[in-house]
């Protein structure tokens, strides 16, 4: 059994060793993976470079990109425990305006290695680039694979509140009893979680951080205390933060020294209990519900129409009298 106090005293190691709890390798992920023995990791979760020309990427032809990804995925599978999981979080490769959903081209790489897909999770968020020649992208995917059919999946720690917790069976032997699981419902495969943009409490200089809550859900459901969690493309250290928050061990590699520093700083803050993050399962901010004045459209207000302002949330009475 792991205790928080044990984690508070931990140091951040530079290289994997079975006796360590936190590893931030400042370099190429394949070098770190080479030091990890077979079947050691319970979970690999990552968001690789998307090959869309971010500052840390050298834009490659799709074939070369897939070859590089295949090499990392192959090593991760070697290090994965028989009951382990791999989650690859990805978006689109954009080629002269045409999009290629990267999960679709990576899928055969995972299945050729004998992995089985358990979910293709849609991660929906509301902020991002505004496109003018196609609909703006507001989701990415997390493809989840396991090494065998006997895999760790803990649903209870990640259940979410039901829409109608007061619902009861109306007939049969359980008539009158509550029909819902008191621990909540399965969160499903469409996850609505804000992405880390400028107003997000977790924002650093990195252009595409994971929100911690996204990885907490994956860590809690696919691992147990003390297990190793690896992120080969660590960025700002989010995966390690989610892992140690829940008493797992975390390792990752990051090639850009500036992000290595950010990752270490955030991990230290997590250990000290000072890292500010958006809590898991906090409802998404609703500006209309919050009474934010910017939700009033100046164009519609100017029309002084007697019709109800469509963007306003009507009261119950208005809802029925406006027709
Ligand atoms: C999409 S970002 C991941 C961000 C991360 N999920 C977070 O929450 O901050 C990918 C990261 O992989 C790093 N990277 C790219 N190639 C790498 C390699 N071969 N080995 C290790 N890190 C690499 C990049 O510098 C970048 O920070």
Describe the structure.
The structure is a single chain. The chain has 323 residues and is α/β, with parallel strands linked by helices. The chain has 2 domains: 4-272, 3-Layer(aba) Sandwich (Rossmann fold), CATH 3.40.50; 291-323, no CATH class. It has 9 helices and 10 strands. It has an 8-stranded mixed beta sheet, with helices on both faces. It has a two-stranded antiparallel ribbon with strand order 4-5. Helix 5 (212-222) packs across helix 6. It is globular. The structure holds S-adenosylmethionine. S-adenosylmethionine binds at residues 28-29, 47, 49, 56, 206, 208-210, 233, 235-236, 238, 253-256, 259.
What's the CATH C level of the largest domain? Alpha Beta
How many separate helices?
9
Distinct bound molecules: S-adenosylmethionine
Major β-sheet annotation: 8 strands, mixed
Beta-strand percent range: 15-25%
Low-confidence regions: 318-323
Please trace the helix and strand order, writing H or E for each element.
HEHEHEEEHEEEHEHEHHH
* Structural shape: globular
CATH topology of the largest domain, by name, is: Rossmann fold
CATH H-level name of the largest domain... which superfamily? Answer: Vaccinia Virus protein VP39
Give the domain tally.
2
Task: Return Rg in Å.
Answer: 22 Å
Q: What value does the average pLDDT take?
A: 90
- Helix/strand structural class: alpha/beta
Approximately how much helix is present in the residues? 25-40%
Distance between the termini: 61 Å
Write down how many β-strands occur, each being a DSSP E stretch of 2 or more residues. 10
User: Which CATH architecture of the largest domain is right?
Assistant: 3-Layer(aba) Sandwich
Q: How are strands sequenced across the largest beta sheet?
A: 1-10-9-2-3-7-6-8
């Amino acid at each position: 059994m792991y205790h928080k106090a044990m984690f508070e005293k931990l140091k951040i190691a530079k290289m994997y060793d079975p006796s360590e709890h936190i590893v931030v390798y400042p370099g190429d992920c394949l070098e770190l993976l080479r030091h990890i023995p077979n079947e050691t990791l319970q979970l690999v979760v990552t968001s690789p470079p998307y090959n869309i020309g971010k500052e840390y990427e050298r834009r490659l032809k799709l074939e070369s990109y897939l070859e590089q990804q295949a090499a990392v995925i192959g090593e991760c599978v070697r290090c994965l425990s028989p009951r382990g999981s791999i989650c690859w979080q990805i978006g689109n490769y954009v080629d002269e305006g045409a999009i290629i959903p990267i999960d679709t081209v990576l899928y055969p790489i995972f299945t050729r290695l004998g992995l089985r897909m358990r979910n293709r999770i849609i991660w929906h968020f509301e902020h991002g680039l505004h496109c003018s020649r196609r609909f703006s992208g507001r989701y990415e995917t997390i493809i989840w694979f396991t090494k065998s059919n006997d895999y760790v999946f803990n649903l209870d720690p990640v259940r979410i509140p039901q829409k109608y917790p007061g619902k009861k069976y109306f007939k049969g032997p359980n008539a009158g009893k509550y029909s819902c699981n008191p621990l909540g419902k399965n969160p499903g495969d469409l996850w609505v979680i804000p992405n880390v943009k400028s107003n997000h409490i977790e924002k650093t200089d990195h252009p595409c951080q994971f929100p911690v809550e996204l990885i907490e859900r994956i860590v809690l459901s696919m691992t147990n205390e003390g297990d190793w969690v690896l992120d080969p493309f660590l960025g700002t250290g989010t995966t390690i933060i989610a892992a140690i928050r829940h008493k797992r061990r975390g390792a990752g590699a990051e090639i850009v020294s500036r992000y290595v520093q950010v990752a270490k700083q955030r991990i230290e803050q997590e250990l000290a209990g000072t890292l500010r993050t958006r809590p898991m399962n906090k409802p998404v901010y609703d500006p209309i519900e919050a009474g934010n004045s910017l939700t009033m459209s100046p164009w519609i207000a100017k029309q002084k129409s007697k019709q109800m302002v469509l963007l306003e949330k009507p009261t119950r009475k208005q809802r029925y009298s406006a027709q």
